[in-house]
Amino acid sequence: MNQAWGRTLFWIVAVAIFAYALNRLSSILLPFVMGSAIAFLLDPFVNRLDRLRVPRSVGSVLVLFAFLALIVAFILLLVPLLETQIVTLVGRFPAYLKLARDELDQFLALLQDRLDPDQVVKLRDAASAKIGDILAGAGRVITSLLTGGVAVANVLSLIFITPIVAFFLLRDWEVLLATIDSWLPREHAATIRDQAHLINQTLSGFLRGQASVCLLMGLFYGLGLTIVGLDFGLVLGLVCGALIFIPFLGGITGGLISVALGFAQFGAWHKPLAILVLFVVGQALEGNIITPKLVGDRVNLHPVWLIFSLLAFGALFGFVGVLIAVPMAAVIGVLVRFALKRYLLSSLYDPANATPVHNPCGGEPPVGGAP
Predict the structure, then answer these.
(1) 135-137-141 Cα angle (round to 5)
(2) Considering all CA atoms of the chain, what is the largest pairwise distance in Å, rounded to the nearest integer?
(3) Which string of DSSP letters, residue by residue, matches 37-72?
(4) Among 75, 177, 241, 273, which is 20 to 30 Å from 16 by CA?
């Protein structure tokens, strides 16, 4: 019993030290987290080349170069168009803000006929304060992004360090796994390997599947909004696709913003209605066909748990926390399910699960299990 408590205490202390170090070093971990994620995603391709007797170093270079070439090509194709739309959006933003204020004034004018003047003044002040809070919050988010996760130093480290980290991890992936396996406590090595395999299945299934969902839905929304004729449709569509990584956020947020911009641009109701139908159809396709087909239920990550993990790790570790939230949620989910399974098989859940006491003299064991 003392040995079991000693092991438990050891792992509690180890996890606490790891979390503290992660929190203290979060400002420099971005390229290492991104490099690890890239290596995890590309390792199956390197393994295929390895089975074709391509040296692992050469295979790592080829796969990583192909991956980076795809990213560069994607940026070169989309950035000019996105830049034009973003600049135009920023230029028109004051006009959209004035339009929203005019609509609010008209709404308050209608209320003046039905409410007391004091109530109208209170409502106007409350609305102004709420708009101010929203703008201030948006400003704080932009400031934190510019001074934190995407500051110049971090961007440079992301560009130059991430490929190096990804290459070395890809090259030494099998060696690292074998080394870690050699460190496992021998008594529980098989159990730990089983849980690690489940974690790997969960992570690979979710990340690769969800990346495909985000890309397909981004293209769907981008092309759909462009066909409808909404300005900045491609930008909004790609942003919605990226936000689909957080359940419901991409579709709902993108739909509300797109419908509001549709009213501001077209004035009539038929185009905003078409935009609303587009997002309703998109949500139906995503939830009932695309996500079940590409991600599936095998990942066992409930949307509520995923949202909580993103918010919790983001609050604890900032931008790096958001990046590691899904892997950590998968790890915690697998471990919790394993612990729950052990609990349901233990005497803590059902006394009938207790191991019967062996009586070498035969007959029934004494009352209370005494020898």
Answers:
(1) 115
(2) 95
(3) HHHHHHHHHHHHHHHTT--HHHHHHHHHHHHHHHHH
(4) 177
Helix (H, G, I), strand (E, B) or coil at 320: helix
pLDDT of residue 310: 78
Q: Is the pLDDT of residue 63 over 90?
A: yes
Whether the CB-CB separation of 174 and 267 falls below 8 Å is answered with no
Burial of residue 21 (CB within 10 Å: 0-12, 13-18, 19+) is exposed
Selected residue with higher pLDDT from 224 and 330: 224
| 32 vs 197: CA distance, rounded Å | 23
**Claim: this prediction has a pTM higher than 0.70:** no
Backbone angles phi, psi at 244, to 5 degrees: -65, -15
With tokens 């790890």, the residue in question is 331
Residue 287 CA to residue 279 CA, distance in Å, equals 12
Q: For residue 245, what are the CA distances in angstroms to 74, 145, 207, 217, 241?
A: 20, 19, 9, 11, 8
